[in-house]
Every structure is written in C-alpha cells, then in structure tokens.
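Might you be able to consider the sequence and fold that I enclose below?
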Amino acid sequence: MNQRATLRPAMQISLVIGLVLLLVGIGVLDWAIPKRTLRASPPPPVSAVAAADVESSAWYCAGGTGPAGSAVATLDLVNTTDHRTTGSMSVVTDAGASRTSAVTLAPRAAETVVPSKILSGAGVAASLQFEGGGVLVSQTVDGPSGWSAAPCAGTTSPYWYFASGSTEPGHVLSVALFNPSAATAVVDLSFITPHGVLEPQLFEGVVVPAGGLTVEPIGAYVQDQSAISTVVHARTGHIVADETETASASGASGLSLRLGVPATERVWVLPRSVDTVGGTTTVSIFNPGLLPEHVVVRVRLASGSVAPFAKTLLGQSTWVLDASAQVRIPKGVSYSTLVRATGPGVVVDRRVVSGSASAAPQFGAQNALAVGDLGPTQILAAPGTRADPAVAGAGADALGLANVGTGRVAVTVSSVAGGVLGRVVIAPGSYSVIGAGALRGLHRRALIVRADGPVAAMADLGPTGSPGVVALGAVPIEAG
C-alpha cells in the first residue's frame, strides 16, 4: 500500500505532462491546417417568381383597403408558364373575417382580382397558394389621393424595415401586419425620427392572430414627424408588413404603398430618376443597426458620373438626401443612383413630389432595388390588363435599366405573351431608358427582362405628375 501511494503522484505528473503535450500538438495541427470559412447563404429575395417546376408557391399581399378606404387594392396575377395554373386565394379583413376563392390562370395570361369584391373590410389582405410555380402577384392600390403599385411578398419574415414616411399635417401613415401562418405572432414597432428613437407602448407586443390582419395607425401616436423610418420586429412568429401613406399637402396629393424590406443590404440602385422643375426627389438611407455605416451615393448622368455624395450614418439613424437641391444634378434629365454601404447594410427608398400644377397624383414613394436580389431573368408587372386596368389609363411610361456590373451587359426586353420589344447594350456603371414610344402597345402588359450581367430594371408608371411618382421594380424569376 505504501509503495502504491508513493508512485501515484509521479503517475499523475506524467499524465498531466502527456495531456499538455497532446493539447499543444492538437493546437499546432489546427493552426497548420487551412481553415475554410463557412458563410451563411444570402436570404432569397422577398419577392421572386418561384421556378415553374416547384410543387407549390405562395404570395402574400397586404396594405389594401375596401371600397370606402383610401387604397382600394387590385391584385395583378401573371402566369409565366406554358401550362394552366390553378390555386386558391384567401381574403382576410382587419375585423377577423375570411373567405377563400379558387384561382385559375391560362398559359402566359394575366388577370386582375379585387380582394374587397370577395370580402370587404376597412383593411384587406390576401394569401394566394398555387399548384406549382411560375406565377407573379403584385398589387395596385387606388384612392381619392392617387394610386400606387408594389410587389407582394413571396415569403414571411420576423423583421421588416421602411426607410421613410411622414406624419406631418396632410400625411396619413399606417402599417399593415399580416400573419398568414397558423401560429399567433407578437410584434413590436419602433420608429427612428430626427428627434431620436420612439417606442410607443401601444406598439409593443401587438398581437396578430394566426391568419389575421392588424392595421396600425402610426400618425395617431407618432405625430408631426417629417421623416420616419420604421422597424417591425416579430418577437414570435413570422409576418408580412406593408406601409401605406397618403399625402395632401402644399397643393400636392398622392398615395404610396410599399412592401417592407426584410433585411439590410450593402448595395442599392434606382435605375432612373428625374428631378422635375418645381418638384423634389429625396433618397432616404436608413441604418437600423447599432454601429455606424459609411455610405456613398453615386449619380450617373447620360454624360457621365458626377462627384459622389458621402456620409457616415450613426446607428439607428436616417440620411435624407435631397437630390433636387444638388446643383450637380441637372433638372429635367434622367439619371441613375447607386447607394453603397461598407458595413452590414442599410435600407433605401425614394420619395418624389411633382409640382402642384402637374397632373395627379403628385406624390409617391418606392423602395430602391437590392443589387443582391437581381437575377438573369426578371419580370415587370403591369397595373392590370389591357381589358381590365387597375387604374384608368394606367401603364408603363418608361423603363429604366441600370448596369451595376463591371462589364458591358446585353439586355433583351420582351412580352410575357411573346415578342421582343427591344435589345440594348449598356456600358458598365451606366443606364438606359426605354421610352413611351418604344413601349407603345406593350405598356399594359407584363414584361420579361433578360440580361447576361447584373441589371436592375424599374418602370415608371403613369398617369402621374412626373416620372417616379408611381414606379415598380422588376422581380427575379427563379431558374427551374
């Protein structure tokens, strides 16, 4: 027993030394082996046409109202495939009622559906389910103040961001929270203003029931703010969020519907803007994160680039760049805008106000296009069909195409139903505009944009007071 007792400390020391040497060896080996960085794959675009060969696809549309409201919704459905597509549409109201109807689309056909004709309410949302993919669903809203268009969402998310908004006198701002899932969602809303971050208690823990719709009036509790950026965060569950804003101030009226942005991005593009005499164009760049973001805004004219604009945004702040006040951007000419951030990313949108003497509507806002969401094949929705326009006389007045790559890009624009509209080659960092004359005959039809490089496409829709008041970006078609 005494011998064993005297040997145990020596054995323990030997074991400790051996273990240390083993750990050192493992550390050296680990240092010597090249490490492979694992990067999370980027999230899919929130609005994208699912590949035709998938088993099923879905779209979610919110932000519209019934006939008595300020933004009566019309859904624009397009079948991009060569076969008949069937599905269903469930319409819900903010009062909790719901009704389901069958949907059928012929090959390469477009149709319009007015949700409030199926079930009416103060607030209306719709969930569409299709057998297979290849279907695009977008939304047009119309009311006494004007009209607007926005894509519907192909997915839900726990986060949604809106770069701009206003509750100044004459502006009415609301956020629609639509929960198409089978589980209750609990949602918080916060607002970044020039006076700081506002978190009204009423917007904390908002309960959105399964399959339900809740419309929150922002201006009643966040009052007299000239610039509001909004963060929607679902503590539990996933939802879809749309922002609706009506304006009637200083002789200008209009309506804006925007689908929220589910994630920040580093690079955004506005393919075409025009600063009209007597009007204003502002670009809102929102940093919802806690860390500063250095942002550079590059403007490209037909004659070349102008000196860039740059700013470092503090966390939870918004830079409102008044493009119409910049002497380096001439009035009445087209230009493209590229916004690049160096950190995790920002959210970008544009607000346009035309002169009060111009045709109605004179106000509108739309999201910029995230460069990470671009695809080789994209589709531009039309506001209704030739036989059934969402708004009387509505159609595409111009199509802006911006090359965001480093090489020349060839672009082909055609109708979903067939027939090539035109082909253009765009230099790197430049843009092209297809005008109303070239669009005549196809300005009320969905268009397919195919490119052999990264190209962003956005259509200016009319009738409006000036280009950009109502605009709609293309969404990618996923490869099958």
